[in-house]
Specification:
1% of the residues lie in helices and 48% in strands. The protein has one helix and 24 strands. β19 and β20 form a beta hairpin. It is globular.
Length: 284
């Protein structure tokens, strides 16, 4: 089921499966900014990543002597969320532990996703609650794919600050230990498919908290991610989209010991407590 939000500037549509954003449109021009999910390239729009970002070594981890299988980017994108609140410009979605989830992740949690239109921006908020009596390890992130209607090389990314960007290379979805410098023209990164020959660009640390997509040097939209420590940028060869992915957490490396509590940049949530973070997509 889709929930549609709208105001005089823009509209948004969110699917209850995965609480996945599948549309943002300019209300005046009807321009669509979210990738259409063509499965010939990638059949998703903007999945919610939880309780991990990226892949675990061997797609598993161990907790209290038991092995749990957990596929890349976690399970939130695969389950129906309950709609707990909805109005013309805002909606809230909730996922709780169930029997299927407990087989993958034994912690008692709630993941609430809030979407709110404010003028020409959509604010996406994550609220993660640990309902159990033990500490809960987790990562989370966003994976919005933005449609590019012109030639890929007509686009570039404008970072908020001048950066010495270092991407951590992936091999079979895990960090290989290799890194690569990504050179900017001051704050601008021209897009070419060759950037993504080795999978996503993964910036474990980044100073900029705003990235703007430029179309022929004209600002198209901006992703604002003040609450997030890491950033992924990704596309598939010849695909007409670019993903700008704010993350807290990232994939394992090849030397991982399988203990989530030891995972780099994992969040540890105290019992009966909560964690919140937001980012926004701003139409320019």
């Amino acid at each position: 089921m889709n929930i549609t939000l709208s105001n005089k500037f823009c509209s948004a549509s969110i699917n209850t499966k995965g609480a996945e954003l599948n549309s943002i449109k300019n209300s005046q021009t009807n321009t669509e900014y979210i990738w259409d999910g063509n499965p010939d390239f990638w059949g998703k729009h903007s999945p919610v990543l939880f309780p991990i970002v990226g892949a675990l070594k061997d797609d598993c981890y161990f907790y209290e002597g038991k092995k749990y299988n957990l596929s890349r980017h976690g399970f939130a994108r695969d389950f129906e969320f309950d709609v707990i609140e909805s109005s013309s410009n805002a909606a809230s979605f909730l996922l709780k532990k169930n029997a299927q989830i407990a087989a993958k992740y034994p912690f008692d949690f709630e993941l609430q996703m809030d979407y709110k239109l404010v003028d020409n921006s959509l604010i996406l908020s994550y609220i993660i609650r640990n309902k159990s009596e033990v500490e809960m390890p987790f990562s989370f992130g966003a994976h919005p794919a933005f449609a590019l209607t012109n030639s890929f090389e007509d686009y570039s990314l404008e970072f908020e600050k001048e950066e010495n960007l270092v991407t951590h290379e992936l091999e079979n979805n895990l960090f290989s230990g290799e890194t690569r410098s990504i050179n900017l023209d001051k704050t601008n990164l021209p897009l070419t498919y060759s950037l993504f020959e080795k999978d996503a660009l993964v910036f474990k640390t980044i100073q900029s908290k705003k990235v703007t997509i430029l179309e022929n040097q004209k600002p198209l939209l901006k992703v604002n991610f003040e609450d997030f420590s890491s950033l992924g940028i990704w596309t598939i060869q010849n695909a007409p989209f670019i993903c700008i992915e704010p993350w807290i957490g990232f994939a394992d490396d090849s030397t991982s010991n399988g203990n989530l509590f030891d995972k780099t940049n994992i969040q540890i949530l105290k019992e009966n407590s909560s964690f919140e973070a937001s980012f926004s997509i701003e139409i320019l």
